[in-house]
Amino acid sequence: MPDAQEAVRRLAVVGAGPRGVMLLERLLARLEGSAPGAHPARLRIDVVDPYPPGPGRVWRTDQSELYLMNTPAFFPTACAADNPGLRPSTAAQTFDQWRRVHPEASLGVQRHQYPARAVYGRYLRHLYQDVVAGLRARPEVADVVEHRAEVTALHPTTAGGARLELRDADGAASELAADAVVLCLGHQPAELSPGQARMAAAARGRDDLHYQGPQIPSDVDWDTVEPGARVLVRGMGLNAFDLLAQLTQGRGGVYRRTGDGPGRALAYEPSGREPRVHLMSRRGVPYLPKAEVDAFVPRGVTLSYLSDAAVDALSARHGALDLAEHLWPLLHRDVVRHYYATLVRAQPEILGGPVEARRFLDELVGQLEEAGRGAPVTSAHAEELLQRYAPGRRFLDILAYTAPFEDAVFASHEDYQRAVADLMEQACVEAALGEESPFMMAVGALHAGRLRIKAWVAEGRIAEDSRIRDVQGWFEPLVEGLASGPPLWRVEQMLAVHRAGLLTWAGPAPVVDAEERAFSVRSPQVGAADSLGPAVVEGEWLVEAMMPPNRVQAASSPLIRGMLDDGVAAAGTWEDEEGVRVPATGFDVTGRPHRLRAADGAVHEDVYVLGLQLSGVQWGTAIAAEAGADPAGRALFLADADAVAQAVLAG
Ligand SMILES: Cc1cc2nc3c(=O)[nH]c(=O)nc-3n(C[C@H](O)[C@H](O)[C@H](O)COP(=O)(O)OP(=O)(O)OC[C@H]3O[C@@H](n4cnc5c(N)ncnc54)[C@H](O)[C@@H]3O)c2cc1C
């Protein structure tokens, strides 16, 4: 311990999930890389989280192993290991490196498999412990002290730094003084939207109706859903797949291989303890499965048109870029090119045989190289060309996948089930083809484009109005539904449960109501076979299969609410197309190292923000950093943490 005379600088790290660990690892790396005596004040680090530090809340090691990561083992890292330009600490290990050394703790998960979230939590715990041991061994570190508590308030002090109020699990309050604070708050509880609050109110005080609001799935007690209950589920993304695993395998049901091809590869044998599940979403279809490929972006995908050089030239000419006007026409050409190049390689017979297919591709690429700015014009020319080689074949309309049934009408609930099952079975076939699927390669190009656009958003190169109108408005929903789905076998499981008679889908644009007897859902696009009205499905349960929104204004935690109410923090703003400033989703912060700004615009020099609450200046703040990736791009969050570590040490 330091003696009383020694200068000690106190750093509070609030939140010790992946971002908190990342920050600590960057501190260690920087200390290990600095000259002796470079940091005269010793550092006392207080780590505050009500959950075990390392895994934190999301990656708790005691959660069901049926909850899986949505990124394969080779992808995530919570520290700089093979990331160019970032010096790793002696404790650094990516998840993939850790699981190879710890086959038992990692349940034998392989590089391309999707680990249980509890297993990723073990990695985070291990990494955290190693990093903290490394920090404690440093002469520049006075101590690392853990507090199993929630920070309920932050009061900046006139001398800089802040006074934090803490509350532990027993409700006991305490205080902590800090010269610097780093907020790594991650996923936060949020207020219900007015529509959700109405549904919650309908179920309040009743034993026969149950409402489950947005929540991290592992925080929900699924055992309270009775066997045979009818469960309406709003959302068909990853939370819905989590819920399905709990209510099938988690109830003792078994998936067996059928020996059939993709889309019909599994059969479900119920235990008899399952509820019946009715899934719904605005689009009316579940997220599509990920392609079976061995990289985060298929190896065969390169962006020829949405290139850095092209985008640099556009930036030089236009300043802030508009996604729809400047970037989408380029990305669309990459999407088209990958689709047809794969078709030519994998199924040339569709275009009249290998020679004709090659000629088609040469002509198409010639067109794309010269294409003007608008995607519709590119499509119209390419479609004409396609008709010469494959008369009657429809040209790829990737935007139509945002809402595949937008203009469709279904005569009955049963008709709709067939349509969704067919679409999802076909998606499984495509996913199984991996890089041989034209569709999955088009989606791969879209996904690669999203990753580049994320980096440009973080660099402030995308106009704010275009972020609202385009990135949030249509691009994100499109790419999420196509490229952020579960692994293939999770969709196989969903189809198997459907065939077992335990799962149906409600139609697009569903309308949910709380009736006297039950919750109900109907889609204006799906008729009832026995009446002139829409098909209606009822349920005793209504579950929102989604995370609480990542929006500081909606956060219900005392810390964020208090900071906003006291003016210690404010939501950032974006300028919309009318030039009006509208609230962004994250805190108002400076550029990197992302210091917090107060409501009056003053900068808190010693309060930093990392992770989800940076969503006003970044896009896609939830996802982990990618092992081995460039800190200017897919490992941006490591660079953020590194910059904060540098600023804290410069203190
Ligand atoms: C269910 C789920 C599955 C996911 N799966 C993947 C995946 O497969 N791949 C991927 O890349 N990303 C995934 N993500 C995204 C996820 O956001 C990141 O992987 C990661 O968890 C973000 O780390 P974080 O530290 O920023 O936030 P979190 O993991 O949310 O950690 C924040 C920590 O801060 C603590 N905290 C919050 N408020 C306070 C307070 N007031 N006082 C003290 N402590 C506080 C919390 O208890 C928590 O431990 C998933 C997210 C969720 C919710």
UniProtKB/TrEMBL annotation:
Residue ranges annotated for the FAD-dependent urate hydroxylase HpyO/Asp monooxygenase CreE-like FAD/NAD(P)-binding domain, each copy included: 12-188
Pfam families membership: NAD_binding_9
InterPro entries cross-referenced by the UniProt entry: FAD/NAD-bd_sf, HpyO/CreE_NAD-binding, L-asp_N-monooxygenase_NS-form
PANTHER family linked to this entry: BLR0577 PROTEIN (PTHR40254:SF1)
Protein name (database record): Putative NAD(P)/FAD-binding protein YdhS
